[in-house]
Amino acid sequence: MPVAIFVRVTTLRIAVPNKGSLSVPSEQLLTAAGYRVHRGNRELMIDDARNDVQFFFLRPRDIALYVGSGTLDAGLTGRDLLLDADTGAEEILALGYSESTFRFAARPGAIADLRDLDGRRVATSYPGLVEKHLAEHGVQVKLVRLEGAVETSVQLGIADAVADVVETGTSLRNSGLAVFGEPILKSEAVLIRRPAAELTEESLAAIERLRRRLKGVLIARQYVMIDYDCPVEVQQAACALTPGIESPTVSPLAREGWVAVRSLVPRERAPFVMDELWEVGARAILVTPLESSRL
Ligand SMILES: Nc1ncnc2c1ncn2[C@@H]1O[C@H](COP(=O)(O)OP(=O)(O)OP(=O)(O)O)[C@@H](O)[C@H]1O
Ligand SMILES: O=P(O)(O)OC[C@H]1O[C@H](OP(=O)(O)OP(=O)(O)O)[C@H](O)[C@@H]1O
Ligand SMILES: [Mg+2]
């Protein structure tokens, strides 16, 4: 007797980093955006039926491959990994974490300029990115491909220079290396999707919804809501300090000659804006964090 197997067809299949520095902040961001993405038991896939999304937990380095080939619709990865894989997947939103630069480094004084690399051995885990950059500058090197701990390769004598991720610079310093030349790239976590031409209208709309949700959380993290009361005479000066993203909301107060103002201010500016508002005569100044937004 034939057995009917019910397979749910999801609108969106999304790749999420399963380890490394992208993994925890990616899960936190998706959770804050209302997705069920927490892996209680090292699951390889989570079916978030309520949002009509399936999440696949993959190595960060492989994510651009899955998305570029159309196996998955969207994913979270690093810009450097996306460009290294060069699969046709498109960056559609910068996510603001796992920030780094990608740079050349060598023993101090050994190599000063990109052109000095000609004919030398360069170690990297990002061969695609490095080859493309060097080709654009007409420089030919012997690439040494490594999985990680790239900085150690010069000390161990298998390379003359490295091209690697730099954040604080501690790894380079500990290996007795110094950067040279211009940064190859500024990287951070990014949301990527299949080339738009390959997506159905329904999938495109679902990815746009995902993008808007993630952006809403990022904006909520960057801004706080500020509320204050002020005399009508200083309203203009106060509003100039809190212009908001579009325009502040001004409402009349029961107290004659006073208004209440509500606006968004960048989180790190909030204490300074509060001081300045007080100086112009605003009172009852309150700051509240945002959980999410849709602007
Ligand atoms: N120290 C770091 N600071 C900021 N971003 C980093 C750092 N190391 C790696 N990244 C970024 O994290 C992303 C993922 O890189 P990768 O897969 O190498 O993860 P990882 O955090 O280095 O973990 P692992 O080395 O265990 O694989 C890349 O976009 C890379 O630029
Ligand atoms: O400038 P820093 O703050 O030192 O950070 C940069 C280092 O961090 C990452 O290394 P990771 O620990 O992931 O090891 P890996 O090189 O083996 O990936 C990256 O590959 C660099 O080596
Ligand atoms: Mg690493």
Automatic annotation (TrEMBL):
<dbReference type="GO" id="GO:0005737">
    <property type="term" value="C:cytoplasm"/>
</dbReference>
<dbReference type="InterPro" id="IPR001348">
    <property type="entry name" value="ATP_PRibTrfase_HisG"/>
</dbReference>
<dbReference type="InterPro" id="IPR020621">
    <property type="entry name" value="ATP-PRT_HisG_long"/>
</dbReference>
<comment type="pathway">
    <text>Amino-acid biosynthesis; L-histidine biosynthesis; L-histidine from 5-phospho-alpha-D-ribose 1-diphosphate: step 1/9.</text>
</comment>
<keyword id="KW-0028">Amino-acid biosynthesis</keyword>
<comment type="similarity">
    <text>Belongs to the ATP phosphoribosyltransferase family. Long subfamily.</text>
</comment>
<dbReference type="InterPro" id="IPR011322">
    <property type="entry name" value="N-reg_PII-like_a/b"/>
</dbReference>
<keyword id="KW-0368">Histidine biosynthesis</keyword>
<feature type="domain" description="ATP phosphoribosyltransferase catalytic">
    <location>
        <begin position="59"/>
        <end position="215"/>
    </location>
</feature>
<dbReference type="Pfam" id="PF08029">
    <property type="entry name" value="HisG_C"/>
</dbReference>
<keyword id="KW-0067">ATP-binding</keyword>
<dbReference type="GO" id="GO:0000105">
    <property type="term" value="P:L-histidine biosynthetic process"/>
</dbReference>
<keyword id="KW-0479">Metal-binding</keyword>
<protein>
    <recommendedName>
        <fullName>ATP phosphoribosyltransferase</fullName>
        <ecNumber>2.4.2.17</ecNumber>
    </recommendedName>
</protein>
<dbReference type="InterPro" id="IPR015867">
    <property type="entry name" value="N-reg_PII/ATP_PRibTrfase_C"/>
</dbReference>
<dbReference type="Pfam" id="PF01634">
    <property type="entry name" value="HisG"/>
</dbReference>
<dbReference type="InterPro" id="IPR013820">
    <property type="entry name" value="ATP_PRibTrfase_cat"/>
</dbReference>
<keyword id="KW-0963">Cytoplasm</keyword>
<keyword id="KW-0328">Glycosyltransferase</keyword>
<keyword id="KW-0808">Transferase</keyword>
<dbReference type="GO" id="GO:0003879">
    <property type="term" value="F:ATP phosphoribosyltransferase activity"/>
</dbReference>
<comment type="function">
    <text>Catalyzes the condensation of ATP and 5-phosphoribose 1-diphosphate to form N'-(5'-phosphoribosyl)-ATP (PR-ATP). Has a crucial role in the pathway because the rate of histidine biosynthesis seems to be controlled primarily by regulation of HisG enzymatic activity.</text>
</comment>
<keyword id="KW-0547">Nucleotide-binding</keyword>
<keyword id="KW-0460">Magnesium</keyword>
<feature type="domain" description="Histidine biosynthesis HisG C-terminal">
    <location>
        <begin position="220"/>
        <end position="291"/>
    </location>
</feature>
<dbReference type="GO" id="GO:0000287">
    <property type="term" value="F:magnesium ion binding"/>
</dbReference>
<dbReference type="InterPro" id="IPR013115">
    <property type="entry name" value="HisG_C"/>
</dbReference>
<dbReference type="GO" id="GO:0005524">
    <property type="term" value="F:ATP binding"/>
</dbReference>
